[in-house]
Write a structure and sequence with these properties.
By secondary structure, this protein is α/β, with parallel strands linked by helices. It is built from 13 helices and 10 strands. The strands form 2 sheets. An 8-stranded parallel sheet has the order 6-5-4-3-2-1-10-7. It has a two-stranded antiparallel sheet with strand order 8-9.
Length: about 270
């Protein structure tokens, strides 16, 4: 594998999901024109392609784009996966296994409204479930990573939460998928957190945020992407940086935002 690779998440199009649901050839065409070589997809955006990996591979091959990661989101409110959660996770593992080198990226839905209520119990439940999924995935040759977010009710939002998480997953096969925008939104020094857990970092998300803590198009906010890119390059990071634009601009014109993010990355990549 080469060093740092750059791709786009499907979330900019998900912000207009009624228009773009299942439009995988369109996503691949736009991100390829933006200079990206990989795609990370939300299951909800793949449409019929989620059940047909061979058809998806044909679309990707036509534009020399790789399937980099599948985003998989659940609540995990119990110390063991429910039967439904187990089945859904195994379906996701099986899908990713058809794309060599692709990651299974786990993120929680944070559906419960009160973050602080039984916080440690909720954290322990998620830790137990994502560890179990990562171990099953490893048996299929799939690398799993966990992506904390900064929703108000997220149970992994602040520095202490991240330290609790990675202290307990030190011996787990699950890797770290830091999202620098979500970390900044939670008041975390993203570069320092990546340095502290560099051995776990296998996949990275970029999104920008302005001084009001509102999402912004890449390069229009306050996040120092250049230092993070340089650090990852200097430490021989061999994986994907995925742009995941959630700015209001993505609602207005999803394609234009992906193209703009591509221009930013091309001007700043390692």
């Amino acid at each position: 594998m080469a060093g740092i690779m750059y791709g786009s998440q499907t979330f900019p199009w998900q912000m207009n999901i009624e228009k773009f649901h299942g439009q995988v050839p369109h996503f691949v065409d736009v991100l390829s024109r933006a200079g990206f070589t990989g795609i990370e997809a939300e299951i909800c955006m793949l449409g019929p392609y989620y059940g047909d990996w061979a058809r998806l591979q044909e679309v990707l091959d036509a534009k020399n784009v790789r399937f980099a990661a599948l985003a998989f989101h659940l609540d995990w409110l119990h110390m063991k996966e429910t039967d439904e959660e187990f089945a859904q996770a195994d379906e996701a593992i099986e899908f990713v296994a058809h794309f060599p080198g692709a990651k299974l990226m786990l993120a929680h839905l944070a559906a419960e409204p009160e973050r602080e209520k039984e916080l440690r119990r909720k954290q322990d439940c998620q830790i137990a479930c994502i560890d179990a999924i990562a171990r099953r995935a490893a048996e299929r040759g799939v690398v799993t990573c966990f992506h904390p977010n900064s929703a108000p009710n997220s149970v992994f939002r602040y520095t202490d939460d991240y330290e609790y998480l990675w202290d307990r997953l030190a011996k787990s096969p699950v890797g770290f998928a830091p999202d620098v925008g979500h970390m900044a939104n939670g008041g975390i020094d993203a570069l320092q957190m990546i340095r502290d857990h560099r051995d776990k970092v296998v996949h990275v998300h970029f999104k920008d945020m302005d001084e009001r803590h509102e999402w912004a198009t890449m390069g229009c906010g306050v996040i120092d992407f250049r230092s993070i890119i340089n650090y990852l390059g200097d430490t021989d990071f061999r994986g994907w940086i995925m742009t995941e634009d959630e700015s209001p601009d993505a609602v207005r014109d999803s394609d234009a935002v992906v193209l703009a993010d591509g221009r930013y990355i091309q001007a700043n990549k390692y």
